[in-house]
Design a protein that fits this description.
Largest sheet: none
Shape: flat
Number of strands: 0
Order of helices and strands: HHHHHHHHHHHHHH
Helix content: 55-70%
């Protein structure tokens, strides 16, 4: 090794190990653990209470405590096998829970997919194009959300009833009619949320694709939409859960027992028609939460990034 090499090696900075961050002791952060434990208890208490009601033989909420007095799995088994009996006559009640669950999944998934497509197309137009009435259109979408849904039930019922006389698939007791009604409110907050996310995607990507000869449709489907997967997952999850929980409009359109959704069908367990069967209602509520929880777990990697990036620019 020459003298020059030794001098060069002598002047090179020596890499020092960065000091490790001291791990806080339990005595310094005990209150954080206490707050976290209390938050978990408050969050899990309703689920625990519903689970105990589902596992209790007594069909009463007042008899449900921290543990079921009379443990049983018959509420879940009878509900899955449509073996719910009337408290008075002992006859089997027509309560096809699995049909209701399948109907709800079909309607919710169809509404979620269509909501994503409609909101994405509208948000892309508002984000990338400049046209007359753009600001008024976005403001109108926001103002429509001010009116509560209960005000629209009578009007929606009359429209569906009259439309069904011409187009049968859009009439009463049809899944397609219910999905179309739900899509009427798809272009609201979802469009604003997607527009904020689309604004955060550099427009230089569009220009680069346009130079390569891509059309507006090819840019939307091949460039922008794959980059917007986080916000698509968020909007789809919100739409899916909201559709699963919706009761007012579904109860006005669906009239046949085997066409009911879960909220409409399960309401019979807690009114006088089925004799206040709270055990079956709680068991159905627990099983109905499984699809939403599974979808949330599958899409959770997109949710945080979708919410944070979509709120950067408006």
């Amino acid at each position: 090794m020459t003298t020059a090499d030794l001098a060069a090696s002598a002047v090179q900075p020596v890499a020092l190990d960065a000091p490790r961050k001291r791990r806080p002791k339990l005595g310094e952060t005990w209150w954080r653990h206490l707050v976290a434990i209390l938050a978990c208890i408050v969050s899990l208490f309703p689920i625990w209470f519903v689970a105990m009601a589902a596992l209790n033989r007594d069909q009463s909420v007042s008899a449900t405590g921290w543990l079921p007095l009379h443990f049983t799995l018959h509420n879940i088994g009878d509900l899955l096998h449509n073996n719910v009996k009337d408290t008075g006559s002992g006859s089997i009640i027509d309560a096809p829970f699995l049909h209701w669950l399948l109907n709800t999944l079909i309607i919710s998934l169809g509404t979620a997919v269509a909501t994503i497509l409609i909101s994405a197309l509208a948000a892309y137009a508002f984000s990338r194009f400049r046209f007359r009435g753009r600001r008024f259109g976005m403001l109108a979408l926001l103002l429509v959300q001010m009116f509560p849904q209960i005000l629209l039930v009578v009007a929606i019922y009359l429209i569906v009833l009259n439309t069904g006389q011409i187009f049968g698939f859009l009439g009463q007791d049809q899944f397609t009619a219910l999905v179309v009604v739900y899509l009427g409110g798809a272009m609201g907050v979802n469009t604003w949320l997607m527009k904020g996310f689309f604004d955060s995607i550099p427009k230089e990507l569009d220009e680069s694709a346009r130079v390569d000869g891509a059309t507006a449709g090819q840019i939307f489907w091949g460039v922008v939409l794959p980059l917007a997967l986080p916000i698509l997952a968020v909007v789809g999850l919100w739409s899916f859960i909201a559709t699963m929980n919706e009761f007012a409009i579904a109860s006005a359109i669906l009239v046949t027992t085997h066409h009911f959704t879960l909220p409409v069908g399960m309401r019979g367990f807690i009114d006088q028609e089925y004799g206040q069967r709270w055990g079956f209602f709680a068991a159905g509520a627990l099983m109905a939460a499984i699809p939403a929880a599974a979808l949330f777990m599958w899409l959770q990697r997109f949710i945080v990034s979708g919410l944070s990036q979509g709120a950067v620019k408006g």
